[in-house]
Design a protein that fits this description.
The complex is a heterodimer of chains A (38) and B (154). With 38 residues, chain A is mainly beta. Helix content of chain A is 0%, strand content 34%. Chain A contains no helices and 3 strands. In chain A, strand 2 and strand 3 form a beta hairpin. Chain B is of the alpha+beta class. Chain B has a domain of 91 residues: Herpes Virus-1 (2-Layer Sandwich). Chain B contains 4 helices and 7 strands; from the N terminus they run αββαβββββαα. In chain B, the strands form 3 sheets. Chain B has a 3-stranded antiparallel β-sheet with strand order 3-6-7. Chain B has a two-stranded antiparallel sheet with strand order 1-2. The chains are: A mainly beta (38), B alpha+beta (154). Chain B: Pfam families: zf-RING_2. Chain B: InterPro entries: RNF11_RING-H2, UEC_component, Znf_RING, Znf_RING/FYVE/PHD. Chain B: This is RING finger protein 11.
């Protein structure tokens, strides 16, 4: 299991049901799960 | 003259590998080479629904009965055939060039949805419309009752 998201990150789903990730500190969004980026 | 012709450095190559390894470690449900993810928004926008064409309610304000009706409506909409606009094909796309809901021309590759009356619209445009009024915007024909009954018996 990947464990909790790093601080400041939030997992969201877009209107097509695809999962993406939001970083409230840097205000960026990305498809990649930050937990799998090491 | 700038260094636009510089040979790839080890950094460039490692970056290449890095982006490939990123793709291998994606979260569920994401496609690597899709368009960029949605822009940053402080709060997740709460969906707004229309129990009747004249009413607008936050998803959190709907009664249980309204939630059920809207869920059924969404189910019905998903049953309607969808495709991609291709003027080259012989289908109804040949005649219809503009989405009358947004008044924009169809562009090759646009996601579209066909109604039983064979009028076509942008997928997002008609899905929004059908959530308010389950009729064809062009000919006002109610979406085929057969579609309704076949959905309810499943």
């Amino acid at each position: 299991p990947l464990g909790p998201l790093p601080p400041g990150w939030e997992k969201r789903t877009d209107s097509n049901g695809r999962v993406y990730f939001v970083n409230h500190n840097t205000r960026i969004t990305q498809w990649e799960d930050p937990r799998s980026q090491g | 003259m700038g260094n636009c012709l510089k040979s790839p450095t080890s950094d460039d190559i490692s970056l290449l590998h890095e982006s490939q390894s990123d793709r291998a470690s994606f979260g569920e449900g994401t496609e690597p080479d899709q368009e960029p993810p949605p822009p940053y928004q402080e709060q997740v926008p709460v969906p707004v629904y229309h129990p009747t064409p004249s009413q607008t309610r936050l998803a959190t304000q709907l009664t249980e009965e309204e939630q059920i009706r809207i869920a059924q409506r969404i189910g019905l909409i998903q049953h309607l055939p969808k495709g991609v606009y291709d003027p080259g094909r012989d289908g109804s796309e040949k005649k219809i060039r503009e989405c009358v809901i947004c008044m924009m021309d169809f562009v090759y590759g646009d996601p579209i949805r066909f109604l039983p009356c064979m009028h076509i619209y942008h997928l997002d445009c008609i899905d929004d419309w059908l959530m308010r009024s389950f009729t064809c915007p062009s000919c006002m024909e109610p979406v085929d009752a057969a579609l309704l009954s076949s959905y309810e018996t499943n």
